[in-house]
């Protein structure tokens, strides 16, 4: 299984997990469980964007690597600059997001 297949399967799994939780609430056998700690979050937003840009072109600069047997893994064609006080590297492909880095 490659990374793309894993993300596709796990993205669909979050929907099934939500459906299971909704159906369990309607079951007469379901008993409320107390959490291990007091939750602080009131809502969670989960974004699954199929076909988004790869991490190598946005926030994760990698250098080209040559493997034994003359097989090479190429890096990204974009340039990276450090932004904000944290010095987070952001690719030139996201110039507007780079202005928001702290």
Structure overview:
The protein has 102 residues and is of the alpha+beta class. The protein folds into two domains: 1-27 and 45-52, no CATH class; 54-102, no CATH class. It is built from two helices and four strands. It has a two-stranded antiparallel ribbon. A two-stranded antiparallel ribbon has the order 3-4. The protein is extended, with a radius of gyration of 21 Å. The model has no long low-confidence stretch (mean pLDDT 79).
Can you give me a brief rundown of this structure?
By secondary structure, the chain is α+β, with helices and mostly antiparallel strands. It has helices at 3-26, 95-98; strands at 65-67, 71-73, 80-83, 88-91.
Count of DSSP strands:
4
What separation lies between the terminal Cα atoms?
A: 36 Å
How many separate domains make up the residues?
2
Helix content: 25-40%
Rg measurement, Å: 21 Å
Q: Give the H and E element order.
A: HEEEEH
Q: What count of helical segments does DSSP give? A: 2
Sheet with the most strands, sense and barrel status: 2 strands, antiparallel
Shape: extended
Estimated structural class: alpha+beta
Low-confidence residue ranges: none
- Report the portion of residues in β strands: 5-15%
SSE inventory with pairings:
Blueprint: H1 3-26, E1 65-67, E2 71-73, E3 80-83, E4 88-91, H2 95-98
Antiparallel strand pairs: 1-2, 3-4
Key descriptive features of the protein:
102 residues, alpha+beta, two-stranded antiparallel sheet, two-stranded antiparallel ribbon, 2 helices, 4 strands, 27% helix
